[in-house]
Structures are given as structure tokens and as C-alpha cells.
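Input record (one chain):
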Amino acid sequence: MTVAFSGDPAASWSILLEATLREAPDPAVVAARMSRASAEFPNLGPAALVVRPSDWDLTRAEFADGHYGVGDPLVRVALAGESLMIAAHHGAVDGLGLIALLGIALGEPVRSSATGVALRSPDRPYLLSALDRVREAVWTPPTRIQPSLRGNDSGDHLVSRTLPALKLGSARLTSAALETTRKWNAARGAAHGRVVAAIGASWRGGADPRPEADSALLRLRLPAGAVEDDVRALLASAAPEAGFPNAHNPLARWGMRLLASRLGSTFLVSNLGVVEAGVAALRFYPAASGRSGVAFGVVTTGEVTTATVRVRRRDFDAAAAAGLLDLLCDAALTGHEARR
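The corresponding structure, as predicted from the sequence alone:
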């Protein structure tokens, strides 16, 4: 039996953070630190085992695609020399929670420039929000990023690109994902007029991250012709979505399954900000779910910004995943140059 979580029931809800370290830590020390964290934070479940894989790519796929069973550790850790990977169930920690787990594994403080949305509050209760989402799904479903195939494979493709350090806030990242959607769909003769962006956020900021789930979701309906300044204005005034009902609610889960192909957003973007940590590079893969099953992640550390995409294998092949990420990076770099 898998761990229940509100949202797309087909998704693994496993979020990942990879770090290129400056020196290789002692695996036994890392394991001891993670064990103490599980004792201090019961939301993490049983202590994570630190695996030492011979095939890093295979382990990444296993960490990303494997559903979490009831009673399993809700954190997964892999270590190979100067490469560290931490995955966790999104119901246990959010993106900043992964940053906190990185600090725990390394035994040093880490922080992020990401700001929280604690000063905002949902503008309506969950029931009204849910009814609006159902109405949207039935009558005006969000634009879907056009799939490159119709397959049956499970799991996700995960792709990353390394860029020079960029000032890439949520508005620019969302605008770049919007431009990516427009170009991708236009090249395939598909509509792109009802783009709905989901922006992953946290109720707290990243100055003192904790290994907890405190995530918030902003959802923007982006009008045709919207540019970065429009996105920035919408973000500034957006109210977070109300919290989901209990994940075990059978009616909610039935509704999600029934409308799975129409619910959700066009894409999700999640930016962990500028992270101060003793690492050479980071890669962050948020969960891909909903209508398109496409999620873009960004994190900056030192002189490096890393952008990632995560897409469903049944809808996109590896080449398509790489193509989407190339479009995003081109749009982000173009926007960066235009603002200089």
C-alpha cells in the first residue's frame, strides 16, 4: 500500500535534490546524521538507508519513480564519492525541506534566498476552490503541453542543464515556461491560449529551512499575450490555493482519477532560489503531475544556475524532454539579457 497524498494518484510524489560536493563525506557519518533527523522529525518516517550505487542514473530513476509504501522511510539517500542525492515524499518535506536535509547530511548550515508566502492567505475555502477547478476541468481545461507520444511507460524523464548564475526569480521562470509552452505547441499545431501556471512556494522562507512539508501553491491563469511584467503583477497579487482535503478522502480521490486528464495546470515551476551551501552545484526535480505532467525546477549556488525538467514517460520521450528544457533555458537567458 502506497503512502496517500492529495493530488494526482498516479504520481510518485517523490521530489529530488542532487548535489555535487566539494569533497566526499563518510557514508557512515551521513547515515548517522539522517538517523538522528528521523528521530527528531517523525514526519520523515523510519531512518533512511544511505545507498552507494554503482549506476547513478538507475538509482535516480528508482528514487524518482518508486512509490513510497506505508511504513517505508520517506527519505531516500544515495552517495557515490562527491555526488549526493536526496529524495523525499512531498507529503513529508517540500523543496526547502530538501535543502534542510542537505544541511543535515553535510552537518553544516544551509540557507536559501527563497521567500515564503506567510503574509498571504487563501482567498476562499477549499470547497469553493475545488468546485472552480472542476468547472474549469469540464468546460475550459488548461492548455496541455502537447505530448510527443502516446505510450504506456511509467515513471518520468529527468533532464538538467547547467547555466551561468542567473538572477532568475519566479516571474521570469514562469514567463520562460509560458514562452516554452507557446513555442512547443505552436510548432506542433496545438492550441496554447489557456495556459495555467502552477508555482510551487513555501509558507516559510529559506533563511532557516527545516525538513518539513510547508508547501504552498500559487496558480495563475495567464492571458494570451502575457509577458513577464504581466506575470510579475499576477504573482504579486496571487492568493495561495487553499489546503487539500485529507488524502484518504475517497470522493476526492475518485474525482481526481475521473478528471485526471483535464485537472491540474499546464506546467509547474519551482525555484529554490540562491542556496548557500558547501557544494559545487545542485539540481532540483519537483514532482510532475496533473494535465501535462511537466515540471521545471531551478536552483542557484555559487556561480552556477541549474535548470531541470521532469516529464511523464508515457507522454514524452527523452528527446522531447531535452527539447522542452532547451526552450526554457533559451527563454530564460533571453529574458535575462533583456533586463540587463
